[in-house]
Amino acid sequence: PELEVSVNTPTLDLGNASSSSTLTGTANFGVRVYLASGYVVYTRGGLPTTNGGAVIAGMPANAASSVGTEQFGINLVANTAPATFGAVPQQLPDGTFSFGSAATNYNTANSYRYADGEAVAQSTQSSGVTNYTISYIVNISNITKAGTYILNHDLVVVATY
Predict the structure, then answer these.
(1) With pLDDT > 70 as the criterion, what percentage of the chain qualifies?
(2) Contacts of 75 (CB under 8 A, 6+ apart)
(3) pLDDT tens across 3-13, in order?
(4) What is the mean pLDDT of the chain?
(5) What is the C-alpha separation between 157 and 69, in angstroms, rounded?
(6) What pTM was computed for the model?
(7) What span, in angstroms and rounded, lies between the C-alpha atoms of 92 and 8?
(8) 3-state secondary structure the chain
(9) 39 and 29 Cβ atoms separated by less than 8 Å
């Protein structure tokens, strides 16, 4: 059995936040599994946090981006709001050989969520490479504490047998 994971965007800078607009960004990773029953990709890591301990909470339920409201969320599909960004999972060489998909709660355009430890992608069978794009959003409010926010976002990929 073989599990291969590639991270194509190891760092991401979303820029400077404003309570009148949404920060967006994308990161890419790929997964391939051979001679296994598939795989599951879990999101792990903290939330956007300052050195002083201020935190932007993850979105515990799927929701649209809401300017002026503190939000941190992701999905793994193409979006049109708050901007056109992201992409559907790409099967390589094609859909007859690769079978990965975004998991429930992360597979709906313009709907974001972040819950540490949740499955964000999977395949239920041996699969060629599936390239995923994580779409990130961050919104702040007028009372969000100022500072530089850092997110250490890990992905845990587990082969299933």
Answers:
(1) 100
(2) 86, 102, 106, 107, 108, 109, 111, 112, 113, 134, 135
(3) 999 999 888 89
(4) 95
(5) 32
(6) 0.95
(7) 15
(8) CEEEEEECCCCCCCCCCECCECEEEEEEEEEEEECCCEEEEEEEECCCECCCCCECCECCCCECCCCCCCEEEEECCCECCCCCECCCCEEECCCCCCCCEECCCCCCCCCEECCCCCEEEEECCCEEEEEEEEEEEEECCCCCCCCCCECCEEEEEEEEC
(9) no
